[in-house]
Amino acid sequence: MDKANAPLFDKLVSYYQRNSISFHVPGHKMGEGFSPLGRKVYQEILKIDMTEIPGLDDLHQPEGVILEAEQRAAKLFGADHTFFLVNGSTTGNLAMILATCQPGDKIIVQRNVHKSVIHGLMLARAVPIYINPKMIPQLGIAGSINKESLEQTLRTHPDAKGVFIMNPNYYGIGIDLKEIIDLVHSYKIPILVDEAHGAHFGLHPSFPSSSLEMGADIVVQSTHKTLFAMTMGSMLHVRSKYIDVDRLKLYLSMIQTSSPSYPIMASLDLTCHWIEKEGKGLWDNIIQLLDDFYQKVDQLKIMRVKHRLDRRYFLDPLKIIIHSQNKKVSGVDIQKYLEQKNIYLELADLYNALSIVTPGTSYQDLKRLSDGLWEIEQTLINSIDDIQDIENTEVGSVDHFIFLNNKQSKISLEKILYSKTRLVSLQESIGKIAAEMVIPYPPGIPVLQLGEEITKETIEYLIELKDKGIRFQGIHDHYLQRIKVLDQ
Ligand SMILES: Cc1ncc(COP(=O)(O)O)c(C=O)c1O
After folding, report:
1. Among 73, 145, 229, 291, which has the minimal tally of Cβ within 10 Å of its Cβ?
2. What is the pLDDT of residues 173-223, one digit of tens each?
3. In angstroms, what is the span from residue 117 Cα to ligand 1's centroid?
4. Domains detected in the chain
């Protein structure tokens, strides 16, 4: 493969440059028939917004430039097969589960997975056996599962057809998976990894190893999150004797559109091209800029900017976790304050605000962030008396995380879809079975899971999130005054 080329992108450009005439879809005809209001902004990209005409291959039956681009990606990321996804890692999670489980099959699943995993379980009619992650008390967020609890669950459910985990989590926190992968393989079943937030892993010496490198069987990565693809551009990588690739392809053809976006696919191709061309040098500058940033914010008192955790966990260098040192200042407060300065973060929770950087982040961007944090400090410092010492303080009482106690679904997921349900007040819902997920978004991890018995602690936690202005998905009542429960 010529490193100077991005086969799919090059082909698209050559079509446009040849002065081709379009008597096919899309109807905007390379931009000529596009809304005049948006034409100027969309113009360049519409030139390559094409369809499956000869030479441009077909995502669902690739044999030309798309196959070439996917094969290059597979080589770059260490897979036997790589599939381009045009609907994000959401599709990858659905396809991984559908390809692994038949109706009624058990699968061991990390409890704090993204909602798309739960949707995949519902579509596959699989039976999840949840494993709770360990909490990270200094940050008040859920971490990873550990080997001991997985070992115990595998012993109890030796008939499980696979293990599904997320590594890293949204905050870029994860663990070395080697031991866990070896354990799962000793049961001769595959390990499926949602690595949506780790598409760049393994590509620079300061990044953690990728889960494929560590031996995972099938892995989805959101190339659009920490690498450089357009939004929705993701990749699904396979290297396994346990995964039936034909079955996987069949499901991908069912759940991906029959009109995949060429600009998105080409952006995946260009991402691989750029990484191959520049190698680790792509990130050298941002890693250096981050060193400077961390020095600038090192003396903050109200917030602590985390770039290291205890040795059980790694922390992705491209994630900046701004952790509040004071109960009166939530992560959401930090986020809102920065928004007034036109600085937009990825997410915030009760204790933390999270920003993501990439090689597209400049010195100036990081300076605005550090200046913004110092402004918060100066504004609040006189009104706050109890600044905590982060190294010794565990935030959030354990009660906050009761929702992570070992609760399995009381009823199969798909049965809930067809059951009679009703909306009840939060207080009334306690003790009933949840017929909807309650998902703070971001990060999109359900706090209340379908089929779980609703506890007082979960309701208290949800009320606290709501009061702090956290947004929810999955719920019927937009204001979360009522919850949908099984009508039993
Ligand atoms: C852990 C995790 N997995 C999967 C997804 C879905 O990824 P995508 O947005 O690429 O569909 C997300 C989205 O935020 C996520 O956080």
Report:
1. 291
2. 999 999 999 999 999 999 999 999 999 999 999 999 999 999 999 999 999
3. 10
4. 7-278 (3.40.640.10), 282-392 (3.90.1150.10), 398-486 (3.90.100.10)
Residue 371 has pLDDT above 90, yes or no: yes
| CA atoms 276, 281, 282, 283: torsion sign | positive
CA–centroid distance, 27 to ligand 1, in Å, is 31
Query: Residue 401: pLDDT above 60?
Result: no
310-322: per-residue pLDDT in tens? Answer: 788 999 999 999 9
Nearest to 303 by CA among 355, 361, 363: 355
| Ligand 1 atom 9, closest CA | 88
- Ligand 1 in reach of 190 Cβ (< 6 A): no
Q: How far is CA 23 from the centre of its chain?
A: 39
Phi, psi of 138 (to 5 degrees): -65, -20
Instruction: Give strand pairing partners of 141.
Output: 136
